Here is the input.
Amino acid sequence: MPWYHGDYPPSYKNQPKYLRDKATEIANEVLKTTHNEGEAIATGLKQARIHFEHHPEEIPANEK
Here is the structure.
């Protein structure tokens, strides 16, 4: 089941909005290829964290 803004995996609940949105975007792409929700959720969150480590300028100023 793909996720969209406002609809995301429960494990993303306590993440900042910018991270949750990016993780959801990545998880949806992973889900298209693997069809495994658990893997997509975990990979999405991990890769979103890595993305923002490499691109801290993309973190909204009010979230820093």
